[in-house]
C-alpha cells in the first residue's frame, strides 16, 4: 500500500568541494539532514545573464524531513556562494522502512529557525 513519507530529498549544486563539505557537515551537525551525499566533478550547463555557461560543480543530495524544508533552504542560502543557488526538493514517496526510520531519528522533529521578538525568522 502506498503511504507518502514525511521526508524529502534536496538537490543542491555548489562550485567547489570546500563549500560542499561546509554545507553538508553543517546540515548533519545541526540535525537538519540525516545524511548528505557529495558527488564531485559534475559538469553543469546553464543559461546565466543571456549566455550559455559550463561549470564544474559538486552535487549535494540531502535527506531531510518535509517540515525542515525552510530551515534547510535558509541554511544553504546562508552558506552558499552563488547569487541564485539551486535548491530543489523532491518528495520521498516510499523506501526501505528501516532507512526511513533512521532518517527520522537523525533529524530534528520540528523546524528550528530562530525568530526575533516580532516573530519574523532571523538568518
Describe this entry's structure for a reader.
This protein is α+β, with helices and mostly antiparallel strands and 123 residues long. It has helices at 17-29, 69-79, 97-105; strands at 7-14, 35-48, 51-65, 87-91. It has a four-stranded antiparallel β-sheet with strand order 2-3-1-4. The protein is globular, with a radius of gyration of 16 Å.
List keywords for this structure.
Alpha-Beta Plaits; 3 helices; 4 strands; disordered C terminus; alpha+beta; 123 residues; four-stranded antiparallel β-sheet
Average per-residue pLDDT, rounded, comes to 90
Radius of gyration: 16 Å
- State the order of secondary-structure elements, H for helix, E for strand: EHEEHEH
At the first level of CATH, the class is Alpha Beta
Q: Calculate the terminal CA-CA distance, rounded to whole Å.
A: 41 Å
Q: Helix- and strand-based class?
A: alpha+beta
Number of helices: 3
Give the CATH topology: Alpha-Beta Plaits
What's the β-strand tally? Answer: 4
Per CATH, the architecture is: 2-Layer Sandwich
Describe the main β-sheet briefly. Answer: 4 strands, antiparallel
Q: How would you describe the shape?
A: globular
The amount of helix comes to 25-40%
Strand content: 25-35%
Uncertain ranges: 118-123
Strand order of the largest sheet: 2-3-1-4
- The number of distinct structural domains comes to 1
Amino acid at each position: 500500500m502506498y503511504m507518502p513519507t514525511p521526508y524529502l530529498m534536496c538537490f543542491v549544486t555548489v562550485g567547489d568541494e570546500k563549500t560542499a563539505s561546509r554545507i553538508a557537515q553543517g546540515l548533519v551537525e545541526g540535525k537538519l539532514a540525516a545524511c548528505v551525499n557529495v558527488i564531485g566533478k559534475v559538469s553543469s550547463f546553464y543559461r546565466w545573464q543571456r549566455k550559455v555557461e559550463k561549470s564544474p560543480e559538486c552535487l549535494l543530495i540531502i535527506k531531510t524531513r518535509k517540515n525542515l524544508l525552510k530551515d534547510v533552504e535558509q541554511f544553504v542560502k546562508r552558506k552558499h556562494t552563488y547569487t541564485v543557488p539551486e535548491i530543489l526538493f523532491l518528495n520521498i514517496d516510499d523506501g526501505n522502512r528501516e532507512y526511513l526510520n533512521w532518517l527520522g531519528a537523525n533529524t530534528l522533529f520540528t523546524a528550528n529557525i530562530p525568530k526575533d521578538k516580532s516573530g519574523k525568522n532571523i538568518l
